[in-house]
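help with this record:
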Amino acid sequence: MQKKKYLWTICAGWMAAACFYGGTACGQDVSVQAASPAQSALQEQRIRAALQSVGLEDTPQNRQDVRKRMAAGDGLLRAATQAGYQNRPEVRDAMEQAAQNVLVQSYLRDQLAKVAPPTEAQIRDAYATLSRQMEYRVRLIETADEATAQLMQQRLSQGWSFAGLVRRFSIGANAAGGGEMPWVTFATPVDEKELRGALPLPLAQAMVQLKVGQVWPQPIPMGTHWVLARLEARRPYSPPPLEQAAPLLRAQLWQAAREQARDALINQAAVAAPPSLPIHQGDVAR
């Protein structure tokens, strides 16, 4: 049912795009007319695209459902244009902004499609880096503020048990289990991009410097919370054989290359844009 709900959004979006671009001219007669062969082919293409976009099977029943929703969208568009909604400033502004976003996204998609996949040499280099990684397991006392974390640090210096403080005072989701986190893997020197959000950079940097059983001497910020970290274990990482790791490495390297190309395009556009037309990276779909 959820997939079919999305069909309405897709079909309605097509009708709005047709209105803006003139396929169905706003303010003009939008009465149903006999479709030309080209229009029929376009409709069939849109039906297939709608079914694929929500993962529905291409069956006669689902096709009929899409046609009904497209017809409903056409009727609503007719009612809206006859009521003059296309002349409302807020509607026109929103449609213009949507059209600009489509143009930008299409341009970026085409440009990023030109990014070449990683070479076999690059994949082998990435695998060599993977083979030099270490695995770490850490135990955390998680607190809501720095002052509480400092109090926990003081109690540790007074001989309190780390695991006992976790169970009594930690607000972390794993407090009942003694605050122990799953194994994490990364290389040194620590690269924030390679962490991919698995854990905060300051925490990873602390884990690299700690000896097993040691507690980092000061609280570490972790999102909106603060933590005390003790290294429980460290071991070399054993990656799978190259032939097994290669597909994932290829995908990761290719994605990183596309992200780098996207950022370069955005930065170039920001430099070239006149002051009256600022370009914000957050405005661009990723």
Strands lie at 134-143, 184-186, 220-222, 225-236. The longest helix spans residues 242-272.
